[in-house]
Design goal:
The chain is α+β, with helices and mostly antiparallel strands. The chain has 6 helices and 6 strands. Strand 5 and strand 6 form a beta hairpin. The longest helix is centred in the middle third of the chain and has 17 residues.
Length: 193
Amino acid sequence: HDRHSMYWFADLGPGRSVPVDLLAPKPTDQSPERVEVAGIRAWCPPGTGAVLDAPAQIVRDGTAWGIGPVRGVKIAVTSAPALVMSKARSFKDRAYGQGRPRDLPKAGKHAYDLFFLLTSTAGGPSALVKEWGALAHHLLKGKTLDILTDDFASESALGSRLAAGFIRANLGDAAGLEQMVSQQVKLFVDSVR
């Protein structure tokens, strides 16, 4: 593996490997796009400044690369609100070409990810609203709510249309998807404002 690459491949067995995207937080738009973490280059995508704030901790058993079976490993993972902040920025960048080339299929995936996070977080939407309060201080919070408000305001808004298009292309067609997406996003925004 090239330790100076942003991408690693985890070997799962003969002929089976999975790409691993190494990411690090980008606190502000002026922060570097790449950093070295333990000698490995990691990408710092825009909107990821909150990913290490108030992380959730999970405990898992499994197999560690090069070590073998492990039990009770504690892993800090990005909280759902921080992921909403990151996905909102990624959506905006891809939908409007801000910071990255315009890419509507990827924007549609990010729009769907936002919808999924807002409706399917463990504990339900009320748990997400409560967790959102833990990041009340974060500078990305207001920008995130602006993106959600502007781009999912109605069934004809770009975010609602792109999320519904992603659902149709990958999960099947259903009437009223744009309206459902818009309503769910508005419920979240109204709950945290």
